[in-house]
Every structure is written in structure tokens, then in C-alpha cells.
């Protein structure tokens, strides 16, 4: 490793890239303190009015609660289905594994706009039969999100499974364990970190999903990204800056914690 | 034998059924739309290939995607190198800079770029305060803004396959090159880079395919002026209801990506999609 540390040219280039990656996240901070009603840099006074607006306007709280609910349900569906599927692939190694995996990755590979149209078709069809699951309902949005995020969950769980030592499963089988015992008492405990990561990533992806949500909601199921989108398209509302700052802080903290925990885990093993 | 296959079904079927019913079947509905709306026939496909507006959108999309792919690969290579081969501190900083944007929503990031690039944004405010420019530069609401925003979104996706290729390089090959007297830059260009070419191609494919289907970033940073294919579908469905054309474009996009990926499938590893 020591033989080829990055040289000065690469280091400078990488620093430029790092700056480029962080720049837009930093830029929203000053904008969020502008006293003006439009997107601008604060010149001499700072103001918290846009943070106040987040509290005063109940639409923000509504959409945050709705996004939480949708995120939890869709992450649960995606993680459950992906875990079962991953176990099936790992335990039975079916002949067409690659094809099956390719199939479940479709929603990730197909352009988001096509997925959005597809799910729009699904939701309007479902709406013809019931009021609960379908266009512009929260369960409908959660189902659509589950479709979109399952591929990510599958990949994370497969990656975790490939690190499991097959001999522990053989040992369990040799000792007479049935399918359920092998799957849920032997293998799942060994990939619980992968499952947790999959659930967390699924939640975050649903929490911030906008492409599909735009197509399948109109007035009732206004998720947080949907509300932000409305503030971004017409006249840019600096309240978006305030909510963005909060989201960035929460993400950075969770990620920093995750990195520390991950490091410790790697040190233990 | 029966027990074995039933267990396999029990585990595999739920997800396959879910995606089959919630994704594949409705997609067939879209395919049907493309042949039936507004009237039965292949008129919509003919329109896609003859309408100069649609064609100019396709060309612009291709151009933007190529530029974005090249820029993302270059940026990703530099930061991936530091992430894989830097000192402990450099590795941690690089990881932070790669993962934080990856986990933050596309909307927040596009908004961040608006805050930087728009007429009253950070960059124009500074340039004017410093007396360098007298009127704001047009940095956003045009193609430049779209390219910047998309590159920013896609760099992490390019980093993962490249970093994975860099990690799997056998250190002894580099040592051998050094032992035979090759200079640092020679080792980098003639040994290291070629050994990562698989990762580079995989990264290029992922970035290009993702870029093709983008519409949130272009819609915000392009300001309706440099419409890309995905945004065109969105506009055809919600602004000038022309569902048949939107559906036909969707089907063509899926076919195009399917062929591209089928040709290049050996370069794609699913694990690369999440780092």
C-alpha cells in the first residue's frame, strides 16, 4: 500500500473533486439565513424567518410525518422481500440466479421516468377498484416506493450473504435443522448488519424519492420531497434552504456515526 | 425433492410475484398505450423518429450524457484513488466526501446548485462584489447548470466500481514494475490504469444509463430550456397530454438501455451499485 500513495497532482485533483462534492451542500447554509423572501445571499442582516416558516406552516410537519410513515412501510416491505429473495438465492443457488437477480434489479436499471409512468399506470388502475391503495394515497406511494427501492435492498443483502461461511449452514443442516431454522436462526443472525443497512438505505431512498412520487400524487399524499419540489419549481422559496440545511445535518450525523460504528466493527473482526 | 423446491419457491416467489404484478404487468400497459393512444397503430413511433423537436431532444440528451459521463469518470478516478490508496486520514475524508452527497436527496443537491449558480446565488454575488463582473453570469437554468448538477449526482456511482477495481489490483504487479525501474507516472499510466479498465467501463455504463433517465435535476437546473428525454416524457404526460408519445419514448428508452446492457453485461457487477 505504501508504495503508491497518491502523488501531488492526484491529491490536488481529488481535493478539487471533494470541494465540488461538498460545495452545493455548504452553499445552502447562508441562503437559509437570508432575510429576503426570494433566493439570495444575506447581505448585512441574518434572519431565522425561513426556519420559523417551517414551524408556522403546518404543511411541512404534515409532509414530514407522511414521509416518515411511507418510508417505514416501504422500507419494511422492501427489506422483507429482499431478505427472503436473498436467502433463496444463497441457499438454493438456483440455475438461473444471474437472470433472477437481473430481473429484480429492473426498477433500478430502467430510467426513473419510465418506472414513474409504469407505476402511474398501476396506481390509476388500482384506484378504479378501491379507495385505499392507488393514485394519490399514502399506501399507494409506499407500494410504489417499495418497487423502486427493493433492488438496492437486494444488492446489500446479497453482498452480506456472500460473506457468510457456507459451512455454518452445512453444519446446521447436518444437525438436522429445517429450512426455517437454517434461514432464520442460523443465516439471518449472520447478516443482521446487512439487513439493518438495507432497511436504513431503503428508508432514506423512500424518504427522498421524488421522481415516481411526482407522477403518482396530486393533492393528498404530499411527501416532503413533493412539497420541496413545489417550492422549487415556481418561485424559489428560501424555506427550502432551511429544510435542506436540517436534512444535511441529520444525514451527516447519521453517516459519521455509521462510519465510526462500521470502523469499530471492522476492528473487532 | 418436493420439499426442496417448495422451500425455494417460498423464499424466491414473494419478490418475483411482487415485481411481476406491480412492475412488469403495468409496464406492458405502457407498451399497449404506445400502440393504441390516441389511435391504434405505430403512428407514435413514426412520430418519434420524424419529429424534429423530439430528435433535437434526443441529440441533446446524448450530448449531455456523454459530457457528464466523461466528467464523472475523471472526477471519480481521482477521488477513488485517494479513497483506496491514501493515508488513513485521506481515506476517511474521501469516504466522507463521497458518501454524504450520495445519501442526500437529489432535490437538496439541485437546490444547493441553484443557491450557488443562480443570478442572485453565491458565485454571482461574489463576482459582482469583487467587481469582476457587472451582470450575473448565466450559470444555471441552462445546459451548463444541468451538466454540473448531473455530474455532481453521478460521481459517487462512478466511484464505487472504480474503487472496487483499484482494490483488487495485486500489489505485487506494481512492485514488479517498480523493481524493473519504471517511474511512478509510468507505473500509473501503463500498469495501474489499464488494470482498472474493467471498473472504468462498468462506471461509464452505470453513469451513462442513469444519466439517460434523469429528469429531476434537468427540470430544476435546466429551467425548462434544455429539456432532456426524460423530462420530455414528463411534459408529454402532464402538460400537453400526449400519453401515446410519452409511452413510445419510454419503450424506446428501455429497449436502448436493454441492448446496451446486454452487450456490456460482463462489466456490470450488482454490488457496485451501492458501494
Characterization of this structure:
The complex is a heterodimer of chains A (269) and B (275). Chain A contains 13 helices and no strands. Chain A is mainly alpha-helical and 269 residues long. Chain A is globular, with a radius of gyration of 23 Å. Chain A has 2 domains: 58-235, MetI-like fold; 238-269. Chain B has 275 residues and is mostly helical. Chain B is built from 13 helices and no strands. The longest helix of chain B has 35 residues, at 2-36. The mean pLDDT of chain B is 88. Chains A and B meet through α1, α3, α4, α5 and α6 of A and α1, α3, α4, α5 and α8 of B.
Please specify the SSE layout and strand pairing.
The complex is a heterodimer of chains A (269) and B (275).
Chain A: H1 8-32, H2 49-56, H3 58-92, H4 97-104, H5 106-109, H6 112-127, H7 138-161, H8 166-174, H9 179-190, H10 192-207, H11 211-216, H12 224-233, H13 239-268
Chain B: H1 2-36, H2 43-50, H3 52-85, H4 88-103, H5 106-117, H6 122-129, H7 143-167, H8 171-179, H9 184-195, H10 197-212, H11 216-221, H12 229-238, H13 243-263
Helix pairs in contact in B: 1-13, 2-13, 3-4, 3-7, 3-10, 4-7, 5-7, 7-10, 8-9, 12-13
Membrane topology (chain B): Multi-pass membrane protein
Subcellular location (chain B): Cell membrane
Protein name (chain B): ABC transporter permease
Structural class of chain A: mainly alpha
**From the coordinates shown, what is the CATH architecture of the largest domain in chain B?**
Orthogonal Bundle
Strand segment tally of chain A: 0
Q: Can you summarize the main beta sheet of chain B?
A: none
Percentage of β-strand residues of chain A: under 5%
Condensed summary:
With 269 residues, chain A is an all-alpha fold.
Which key phrases capture this entry?
heterodimer, A: about 270 residues, mainly alpha, MetI-like fold, 13 helices, about 0% strand, B: about 280 residues, transport (chain A), transmembrane (chain A), membrane (chain A)
Amino acid at each position: 500500500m505504501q508504495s503508491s500513495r497518491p502523488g501531488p497532482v492526484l491529491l490536488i485533483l481529488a481535493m478539487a473533486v471533494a470541494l465540488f462534492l461538498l460545495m452545493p451542500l455548504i452553499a445552502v447554509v447562508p441562503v437559509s439565513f437570508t432575510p429576503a423572501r426570494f433566493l439570495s445571499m444575506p447581505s448585512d442582516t441574518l434572519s431565522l424567518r425561513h426556519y420559523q416558516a417551517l414551524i408556522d406552516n403546518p404543511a411541512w410537519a404534515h409532509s414530514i410525518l407522511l414521509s416518515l410513515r411511507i418510508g417505514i412501510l416501504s422500507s419494511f416491505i422492501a427489506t422483507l422481500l429482499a431478505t427472503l429473495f436473498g436467502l433463496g438465492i444463497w441457499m438454493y443457488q438456483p440455475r438461473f440466479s444471474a437472470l433472477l437477480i437481473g430481473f429484480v434489479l429492473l426498477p433500478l436499471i430502467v430510467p426513473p421516468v419510465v418506472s414513474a409512468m409504469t407505476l402511474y399506470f398501476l396506481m390509476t388502475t388500482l384506484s378504479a377498484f378501491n379507495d385505499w391503495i392507488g393514485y394519490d394515497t399514502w399506501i399507494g406511494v409506499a407500494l410504489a416506493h417499495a418497487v423502486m427501492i427493493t433492488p438496492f435492498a437486494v444488492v446489500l443483502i446479497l453482498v452480506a450473504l456472500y460473506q457468510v461461511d457456507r459451512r455454518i449452514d452445512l453444519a446446521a443442516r447436518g444437525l438436522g435443522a429445517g429450512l426455517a431454522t437454517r434461514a432464520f436462526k442460523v443465516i439471518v443472525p449472520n447478516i443482521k448488519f446487512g439487513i439493518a443497512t438495507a432497511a436504513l438505505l431503503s428508508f432514506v431512498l423512500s424518504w427522498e424519492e421524488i421522481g415516481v412520487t411526482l407522477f403518482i400524487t396530486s393533492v393528498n399524499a404530499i411527501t416532503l420531497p413533493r412539497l420541496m419540489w413545489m417550492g422549487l419549481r415556481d418561485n424559489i422559496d428560501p424555506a427550502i434552504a432551511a429544510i435542506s440545511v436540517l436534512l444535511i445535518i441529520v444525514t451527516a450525523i447519521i453517516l459519521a456515526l455509521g462510519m465510526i460504528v462500521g470502523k469499530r466493527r471492522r476492528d473487532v473482526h | 425433492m418436493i420439499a426442496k423446491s417448495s422451500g425455494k419457491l417460498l423464499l424466491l416467489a414473494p419478490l418475483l410475484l411482487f415485481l411481476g404484478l406491480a412492475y412488469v404487468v403495468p409496464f406492458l400497459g405502457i407498451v399497449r398505450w404506445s400502440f393504441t393512444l390516441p389511435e391504434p397503430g405505430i403512428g407514435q413511433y413514426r412520430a418519434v423518429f420524424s419529429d424534429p423537436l423530439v430528435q433535437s431532444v434526443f441529440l441533446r440528451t446524448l450530448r449531455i450524457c456523454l459530457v457528464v459521463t466523461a466528467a464523472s469518470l475523471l472526477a471519480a478516478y481521482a477521488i477513488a484513488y485517494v479513497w483506496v490508496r491514501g493515508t488513513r486520514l485521506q481515506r476517511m475524508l474521501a469516504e466522507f466526501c463521497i458518501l454524504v452527497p450520495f445519501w442526500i436527496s437529489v432535490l437538496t443537491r439541485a437546490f444547493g446548485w441553484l443557491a450557488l449558480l443562480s443570478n442572485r446565488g453565491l458565485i454571482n454575488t461574489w463576482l459582482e462584489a469583487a467587481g469582476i463582473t457587472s451582470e450575473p453570469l448565466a450559470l444555471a437554468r441552462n445546459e451548463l447548470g444541468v451538466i454540473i448538477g448531473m455530474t455532481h449526482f453521478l460521481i459517487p456511482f462512478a466511484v464505487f466500481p472504480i474503487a472496487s477495481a483499484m482494490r483488487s489490483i495485486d500489489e505485487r504487479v506494481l512492485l514488479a514494475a517498480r523493481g524493473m525501474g519504471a517511474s511512478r507516472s509510468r507505473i500509473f499510466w501503463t500498469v495501474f490504469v489499464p488494470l482498472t479498465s474493467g471498473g472504468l467501463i462498468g462506471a461509464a455504463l452505470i453513469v451513462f444509463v442513469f444519466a439517460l433517465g434523469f429528469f429531476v435535476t434537468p427540470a430544476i437546473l435546466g429551467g425548462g430550456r434544455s429539456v432532456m428525454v426524460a423530462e420530455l416524457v414528463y411534459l408529454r404526460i402532464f402538460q400537453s397530454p400526449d400519453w401515446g408519445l410519452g409511452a413510445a419514448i419510454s419503450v424506446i428508452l428501455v429497449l436502448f438501455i436493454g441492448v446496451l446492457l446486454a452487450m456490456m453485461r460482463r462489466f456490470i457487477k450488482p454490488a457496485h451499485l451501492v458501494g
